Amino acid sequence: MGSVENGCVEEPLLKSKGLEEDIEEISSCGQFIELAVEENKKLWCLAGPAIFTALAQYSLGALTQVFAGHLTTLELDAVSIENMVIAGLAYGIMLGMGSALETLCGQAFGAGQHHMLGVYMQRSWVILIFTSLLLLPIYIFATPLLLLLGQDPAIARLAGTFSLYMLPQLLAYALNFPIQKFLQAQSKVMAMAWVSAFALVFHVFLSWLLIVRFGLGLVGAAVSLNVAWWVVVVGQFAYIAMGYCPGAWTGFSWAAFRDLGAFARLSVASAIMMW
Predict the structure, then answer these.
(1) Is 213 exposed, middle or buried (0-12, 13-18, 19+ CB in 10 A)?
(2) What angle do CA 191, 271, 250 make, to 5 degrees?
(3) 37 phi and psi angles, rounded to 5 deg
(4) Cα–Cα distance, 71 to 65 (Å, whole number)
(5) CA atoms within 13 Å, Cβ hemisphere of 202
(6) Which keywords accompany this UniProt record (predicted)?
C-alpha cells in the first residue's frame, strides 16, 4: 500500500524479497509472534483512525438526538425518525455507492496511476449528486410517506419539517463519501480522523449553544448537524486542495464526465452489496 502519515507505516505491509520468495520463512514460534505483532501494529495504524472516523461521524446524528432530549418528547421523536428513517436511508445508499471507489482507487494507486484517483473521485461526485436529486422526494414528502407507514400525524408533520431542514446534509453525503475513499486509498486516514474529531467537538458545542442556550429547537438541531457535516466535507477537501495528495489531485477535470454509465452500474452494484 505504501506509506502512512506520521511514520506509522514506512513500507509495504508485506515485504517483497523478489520473485521466488515473497516473505521470509518463519522458522520458530517466537519469530511468528514477533512478525504478527509487527504486522498488527501496521494494520492498526490504518484501521484505528478509520474506525474512529466512522464512529465520530455516526456520533454526529446520535448526539443530535441526545441534545433533542432537551426539547419536547414530540420533537425528540421527530429528530429520531428523521435520523433513523429518512437520513438513514440516504446515508446507506450514498455510502454503498461511494464504496465503489474502494476498488477503483485502490487499483489506480497500486498501479501508480495516481492522477486517476482524483478523476474517479469527481466521477463519483457526479453520480452521487445525481442520486441525491433522486432522493429529494423522500425528504420533501417525508410527512405523507410517514403517514402512509402509519406514523402518528403530529410526529410525521414535525419529522417532515425537520427533513426539509436537513437537505444540506444530503448534499454533504454525496461529497463526503467519495472524498473518504479517495483519502483511504492513499492511507491518509489520520487526516480524516482529525477532521472528524474537530467536527464532533464543534458539533457538541454548537448543539449546546443553539439548542440548550438559545432554545432554537428543531431549527438549532438542524443547523448544528448540517454545519457539522459540512465541516467534515470542507475540512477534508481543504486538506486535498492544499497539496497533501500530490499527483492524486490535479484539479477539476472534464474526464469526470466520461464513462458515467459504467461507473453508475458499478456504484449501484456496490450499494446493493452493502445492503
Answers:
(1) exposed
(2) 40
(3) -65, -45
(4) 10
(5) 18
(6) Membrane, Transmembrane, Transmembrane helix
Instruction: 42-49: list long-range contacts, CB under 8 Å, 24+ apart.
Output: 42/4, 42/8, 42/9, 42/13, 43/13, 45/4, 45/8, 45/9, 46/1, 46/4, 46/8, 46/9, 46/187, 46/189, 49/189, 49/190, 49/192, 49/193
Distance, in Å, from the CA atom of 193 to the CA atom of 206, rounded to the nearest integer, reads: 20
**What is the 3-class SS of the chain, one letter each residue?**
CCCCHHHCCCCCCCCCCCCCCCCCCCCCHHHHHHHHHHHHHHHHHHHHHHHHHHHHHHHHHHHHHHHHCCCCHHHHHHHHHHHHHHHHHHHHHHHHHHCHHHHHHHHHHHCCCCHHHHHHHHHHHHHHHHHHHHHHHHHHCHHHHHHHCCCCHHHHHHHHHHHHHCHHHHHHHHHHHHHHHHHHHCCCHHHHHHHHHHHHHHHHHHHHHHHHHCCCHHHHHHHHHHHHHHHHHHHHHHHHHHHHCCCCCCCCCHHHHCCHHHHHHHHHHHHHHHC
* Cβ burial 78-90 (10 Å sphere, 16+ → b, else e): bbbbbbebbbeeb
pTM of the predicted structure, to 2 decimals: 0.86
For residue 106, how far is the Cα from the chain centroid?
17
Query: The cell 438542524 sits on which residue?
Result: 222
Closest by CA position to 182, among listed 125, 126, 230 = 125
Render pLDDT for 255-273 as a digit per residue (tens, 0 to 9). 899 989 989 999 999 888 8
Neighbours of 273 (CB within 10 A): 10
